[in-house]
Amino acid sequence: MATTALNPPQSSPENTPLRVTFPDNRLLVDLCGEYDRNLAQIEQAFDVHLLRRGNELSIIGDEAACRRAEETLRALYDRLEAGRPVEAADVSAAIRFGKPTRHDAEKGGDQLEMFRGGQITIRTRKKQIEPRSRHQAEYVRQLFENELVFGLGPAGTGKTYLAVAVAVSMFIEGHVDRILLSRPAVEAGERLGFLPGDMKEKIDPYMQPLYDALNDFLPARQLGKLIEEKRIEIAPLAFMRGRTLSNAFVVLDEAQNTTPMQMKMFLTRLGEGSRMAVTGDMTQIDLPRGAMSGLIEAERILRRVPGIGFTRFDARDVVRHPLVARIIEAYEKAGDPDA
């Protein structure tokens, strides 16, 4: 493993290295990552250079940037001490939401609770999920506390993924008897009738993101059995009419593509012992031009109703490739309604 940054600059009185010591050298190895890739990620993010000697890291660069890098390194080391792994996405989250400097704290900085000791963990059969931003932590908390929660924001912020994770967790722990995942079968210019195959084959392409999320949380054999037993259902929104959903965790994805009538129909399916999560991105509406989105209307009407939670995500919450967040921010600055 490489243990030093390539060609680090020489220190000067204006550029004195900030030295950080880590007690456990084995954890420090994990902190650095394979071929020091975690260090490289931090160097690039803060425009600093990191030099390792033994169990000490020297941080060379602008003083404020060095402090931010130190806080990020300490946050990730704390995570390793708690027995949790550090992956590329965790490094990215720590860079964006890790422990703030004193200056950040005075400004009310966006400190991530999972790096502060107040750990939030969603347990499923295959993995444990942790929120990676303040908004994600708030959203998960609301999903556990409220019977109806709206997650609003751009793609890649974990709205649906976290909702399905909470649904699986509550199902495993016996809080609900079944899981129902739904989406409106609306895509750009296509209709179900124009696709080949029977009804299931027509619907499955629209439902695939929900299958993908479930496959992340449940073993394939168990998932197949639960679907066969109808304890997990994945169905288009049109199939919800006339049903009362009791003792279930229900997730409506892509809700921006519902009409006001469909949204009201869906929300009034809520039965005894059930919970609902409604997710959507109001900038990605695929309804016919001029048609009102049921999600926009629902937010306007229900915003102040007790017992209903709303979480609004933004580009800082994107947990896909970092470039996705920059793309979203660029569109937002440009004022493009289709961003």
- Based on secondary structure, the structural category is alpha/beta
Please report the distance between the alpha carbons of the first and last residues.
42 Å
The SSE order reads: EHHEEHHHEEHEHEHHEEHEHEH
Approximate shape? elongated
Share of residues in helices: 40-55%
State the helix count: 12
DSSP summary, beta strand count: 11
Could you describe the largest sheet, including whether it forms a barrel?
6 strands, parallel
**Overall pLDDT metric:** 81
| Gyration radius over CA | 23 Å
Q: Which stretches of 5+ consecutive residues score pLDDT under 50?
A: 1-13, 99-117
What percent of residues are in strands?
A: 5-15%
User: Strand order, biggest sheet?
Assistant: 8-7-9-10-6-11
Summarize the structure.
This protein is an alpha/beta fold. It has helices spanning 25-32, 37-46, 63-81, 88-97, 102-106, 134-145, 159-172, 199-217, 220-228, 260-267, 294-302, 322-334; strands at 18-21, 49-53, 56-60, 122-123, 128-129, 148-152, 178-183, 232-236, 248-252, 275-280, 308-312.
Provide an overview of this structure:
The model is unreliable at 1-13 and 99-117 (pLDDT under 50). The protein has 12 helices and 11 strands. The strands form 3 sheets. A 6-stranded parallel β-sheet has the order 8-7-9-10-6-11, with helices on both faces. It has a 3-stranded antiparallel β-sheet with strand order 1-3-2. The protein has a two-stranded antiparallel ribbon with strand order 4-5. It is α/β, with parallel strands linked by helices and 339 residues long. Strand 9, helix 10 (260-267) and strand 10 form a beta-alpha-beta unit. Helix content is 40%, strand content 15%. 38% of the residues are buried.
